[in-house]
Write a structure and sequence with these properties.
This protein is about 85% helix and about 0% strand. The protein contains four helices and no strands.
Length: about 80
C-alpha cells in the first residue's frame, strides 16, 4: 500500500490523501469489528472500505505512471515491430 501511495501521491496528492484516510478508517473499523461482540463476522465493512481504498490508490498509481510514460502514443510506439 505504501508503494502505491508514494507513486500515486506524485501525480494526485489530494486524491491519495483521501484514499489513505479512507484506508485508515477502514482498518480501524476492521479492527473494532473484529474485536467487538460480533467477532470475526463484524469485520466485513471495515475490510471492504480498506479494500476499496487500496484499489483506488493502485488505479491512481497505474494511471499516473502510464500518463507520465507517454500514454497511448508511447505504448503504440513500444508495440510496433
Amino acid at each position: 500500500m505504501l508503494v502505491y501511495e508514494a507513486i500515486a501521491g506524485l501525480f494526485f496528492p489530494r486524491f491519495t490523501l483521501a484514499t489513505a484516510l479512507l484506508f485508515i478508517v477502514g482498518r480501524q473499523l476492521y479492527a473494532t469489528g473484529y474485536t467487538g461482540a460480533a467477532g470475526p463476522q463484524g469485520r466485513g465493512f471495515g475490510g471492504l472500505l480498506a479494500f476499496v481504498a487500496q484499489i483506488l490508490t493502485f488505479g491512481a498509481a497505474v494511471y499516473g505512471a502510464f500518463t507520465a510514460a507517454g500514454g497511448l502514443p508511447a505504448l503504440k510506439a513500444l508495440c510496433t515491430f
